[in-house]
Amino acid sequence: MSGKLPFGAASGGSDRKPSRAAAPLAGATSAAVAASPSGAGSNNELAALFECPVCYDYVLPPILQCQSGHLVCSSCRSKLTCCPTCRGTLGNIRNLAMEKVATTVMFPCKYVSSGCSVLLLHTEKANHEEACECRPYQCPCPGASCKWQGSLDQVMNHLTMAHKSITTLQGEDIVFLATDINLPGAVDWVMMQSCYNHHFMLVLEKQEKYDGHQQFFAIVQLIGSRKQAESFAYRLELNGHRRRLTWEATPRSIHEGVSSAILKSDCLVFDTSIAQLFADNGNLGINVTISMC
Ligand SMILES: [Zn+2]
Ligand SMILES: [Zn+2]
Ligand SMILES: [Zn+2]
Ligand SMILES: [Zn+2]
């Protein structure tokens, strides 16, 4: 009946790791190393030329220089009134030669200090860093109130210490009971579900995407990486009064978070009238089933 899983949320393909440039052979003379334009040494030296003098991130195209030719990255530039190197005017001078060179350089991922060893073309950098498993995890609680971030193995500890009000149910098949769904305004209901030796966070969010029209968004995220999330599926089901509404999908990873999925309605979405059809005394029960696939 429920048909195929809507796998639309899966991101395209696995991380493409560009092959690293070979390191210079041990014992090679310095002349031989310098003569090899594709060696790791020269790539790293080139990449270093693009370092922003303020934040040490890379200055990437479009590259603008000060009147004396100094570079600064675009995010620092927007906060500066003069060149950090020579105090001269920043101006709007493009450096097309550096932009051309930038297209040939393999830049390290910005999470290199957290253990990522990937080198990338600047055009691939932002996409990789967004999905990079070495990127710190943020607090998975919906809403932007908690600013905590840390590694994956610290997340559960953070949740139990800082978000004590979140209850946990054990088992792969549970009922997520949201109480007082008629509360006005934007409201989040959150619960944890533990099964298959993993922890899942269930989120029901009430939002007004446009004036006067409130909608509910229900979604499940795994306290784990995207790769781990791919081996699970979740089903949300509203049941009652001879009606049934079902949604099945791959859980999000808390690395991606739920807000972008909610924005795209890539979750169980229903409006207040449908909520009323299934609610009992202002309380809504959502059947949540997690399975391995
Ligand atoms: Zn900078
Ligand atoms: Zn300058
Ligand atoms: Zn990375
Ligand atoms: Zn938190």
UniProtKB/TrEMBL annotation:
Database matches in Pfam families: Sina_RING (PF21362), Sina_TRAF (PF03145), Sina_ZnF (PF21361)
GO biological process, one term: protein ubiquitination
EC number: 2.3.2.27
Pathway(s) of this molecule: Protein modification; protein ubiquitination
InterPro entries listed in its UniProt record: 7-in-absentia-prot_TRAF-dom, SINA-like_animal, Sina-like_RING, TRAF-like, Znf_RING, Znf_RING/FYVE/PHD, Znf_SIAH
Residue numbers spanned by region Disordered: 1-21
Coiled-coil regions, chain positions: none
UniProt keyword list: Cytoplasm, Developmental protein, Metal-binding, Nucleus, Sensory transduction, Transferase, Ubl conjugation pathway, Vision, Zinc, Zinc-finger
Keyword Chaperone set for record: no
Ranges of residues in domain RING-type: 52-87
Location(s), subcellular: Cytoplasm; Nucleus
Gene3D superfamilies to which the protein is assigned, alphabetical: Apoptosis, Tumor Necrosis Factor Receptor Associated Protein 2, Chain A, Zinc/RING finger domain, C3HC4 (zinc finger)
Residue ranges of domain SIAH-type in the record: 104-164
Similarity comment: Belongs to the SINA (Seven in absentia) family.
Domain remarks: The RING-type zinc finger domain is essential for ubiquitin ligase activity.
UniProt cross-references to PANTHER family, sorted A to Z: E3 UBIQUITIN-PROTEIN LIGASE SIAH2, E3 UBIQUITIN-PROTEIN LIGASE SINA-RELATED
Quaternary assembly: Component of some E3 complex at least composed of sina, ebi and phyl. Interacts with eff.
Biological function: E3 ubiquitin-protein ligase that is required for specification of R7 photoreceptor cell fate in the eye by mediating the ubiquitination and subsequent proteasomal degradation of Tramtrack (ttk). E3 Ubiquitin ligases accept ubiquitin from an E2 ubiquitin-conjugating enzyme in the form of a thioester and then directly transfers the ubiquitin to targeted substrates. E3 ubiquitin-protein ligase that mediates ubiquitination and subsequent proteasomal degradation of target proteins. E3 ubiquitin ligases accept ubiquitin from an E2 ubiquitin-conjugating enzyme in the form of a thioester and then directly transfers the ubiquitin to targeted substrates.
Protein name: E3 ubiquitin-protein ligase
